[in-house]
UniProtKB/TrEMBL annotation:
Keywords: FAD, Flavoprotein, Oxidoreductase
Transmembrane segments: none
Family note: Belongs to the acyl-CoA dehydrogenase family.
Acyl-CoA dehydrogenase/oxidase C-terminal domain mapped to chain residues: 225-365
Segments forming domain Acyl-CoA dehydrogenase/oxidase N-terminal: 17-129
SUPFAM superfamilies (UniProt xref): Acyl-CoA dehydrogenase C-terminal domain-like, Acyl-CoA dehydrogenase NM domain-like
Highest taxon of source: Bacteria
Pfam family name, one: Acyl-CoA_dh_N
Record-given protein name: Acyl-CoA/acyl-ACP dehydrogenase
InterPro entries per record: AcylCo_DH-like_C, AcylCo_DH/oxidase_C, AcylCoA_DH/ox_N, AcylCoA_DH/ox_N_sf, AcylCoA_DH/oxidase_NM_dom_sf
Listed cofactors: FAD
PANTHER family the record matches: ACYL-COA DEHYDROGENASE, ACYL-COA DEHYDROGENASE FADE28
Length: 372
């Protein structure tokens, strides 16, 4: 006699006290060191990343090692806590290589660190915040499109997010996954001009470069897929943070802006638009939290939860940013106001780790529809 099937666990979409404490710490840090004028000034500089901000976030708060087990030098937390950090980074659009290094590269290495070796050693360095790493694949690569970027350590990969600021490049090839030092002979990182100036893109050109082999081709493909899945899932939390800031700032502005001797926010047409946006954000929060919880618990439904979150949250972030720019009127179109930063980040995020369309296709493949 077979045991009855156990019902699936109910996802926990609420925030724990520890998660709220982490949110408060990250928000206070970003308010102090990554306010709007600071971020705008950083986008006009050659190096948008502030090393002191990264040190405070990665080491002071310990955010860089949230996904790394304690035995490997990390905090031993989960994707839920990392999602909270990304929500706050989305709220401030702060230039920081957290998603690419502390999530995608870290998750890729975690898939290979079971037996120790160079992957485990590199994880300890990433968790401490002393080094950063990126997965050398185009930023638009979806989890289902994980594949070797090059045949060997020779060639060019374009559109790699945060490559210019990385210390280590994780390069998937037909021979396996290599860790290449960014300053190694034969490795050249060329900055590109991105739409989102707060998350720079670059091209990596390898010519006779050498690296440390971390995994065989089969293990490399599995690890890269795991890294991209975590990146896509937690990117939804960043998109949630973008949308929440846009709505909060728009509501504040329309309360203060007067026309015909009354706040413009009191006009019924604007009320309806902001109410609709609030409903979309509530749904986006549920989708993003479900994805983070599925990744944290190792749920077999994690790929589906991630695909649903990305298929929905990317559009919500873009819509919220567009409404923010438009409802701010003339000032929303100026460089001095931060609204354009959120619109550019939302637009860039909408194709990161797969477009909404590719994730909808993934949902259709993952959902088993009953026979007619």
């Amino acid at each position: 006699m077979t045991a009855p099937a156990q019902p699936p666990a109910t996802p926990d979409l609420l925030y724990s006290r520890d998660e709220e404490d982490l949110r408060s710490a990250v928000r206070a840090l970003l308010a102090d060191r990554a306010d709007a004028p600071t971020v705008i000034a950083a986008t006009e500089a050659d190096t948008p990343y502030d090393p002191r901000l990264w040190e405070a976030l990665a080491t002071g708060i310990g955010a860089a090692g949230l996904l790394v087990p304690e035995k490997l030098g990390g905090q031993g937390a989960s994707h839920r806590e990392a999602a909270v950090v990304l929500e706050e980074l989305g709220r401030s659009v702060a230039p920081a290589p957290y998603l690419t290094s502390s999530v995608v590269a870290t998750e890729t290495l975690l898939a290979l660190a079971g037996d120790g070796g160079p992957a485990a050693a590199l994880l300890g360095e990433l968790a401490s915040g002393t080094r950063t790493a990126v997965l050398a694949v185009p930023f638009a690569t979806p989890p289902t499109g994980a594949a070797a970027a090059l045949a060997t350590l020779d060639g060019t990969v374009r559109g790699i997010a945060d490559a210019a600021a990385a210390d280590v490049l994780l390069v998937p090839t037909d021979e396996g996954l290599y860790a290449v030092d960014a300053t190694a002979p034969g490795a050249a990182v060329t900055p590109l001009v991105p739409l989102d100036l707060t998350r720079p893109l670059a091209a990596l050109t390898l010519s006779g470069a050498t690296g440390t082999l971390l995994a065989t081709p089969e293990a490399s493909a599995t690890a890269v897929r795991r890294g991209l899945l975590a990146g896509a899932g937690l990117l939804a939390s960043e998109q949630l943070g973008i949308a929440e800031w846009c709505l909060t700032e728009t509501v504040r502005y329309t309360r203060e802006r007067h026309q015909f001797n009354r706040p413009v926010g009191s006009f019924q047409a604007l009320k309806h638009r902001m109410a609709q946006l609030w409903l979309e954000i509530v749904s986006a929060r549920a989708a993003a939290r479900n994805a983070a919880d599925a990744l944290a618990t190792g749920s077999p439904d994690a790929p589906l939860a991630v695909a649903v979150a990305q298929a929905y949250c990317s559009g919500v972030a873009v819509h919220a940013a567009e409404e923010c720019v438009q409802l701010h009127g003339g000032i929303g179109m100026t460089w001095e106001h931060p609204a354009h930063l959120y619109l550019k980040r939302a637009k860039a995020d909408s194709i990161a780790y797969g477009s909404a369309g590719s994730h909808r296709e993934a949902v259709a493949e993952l959902v088993e529809l009953p026979a007619p």
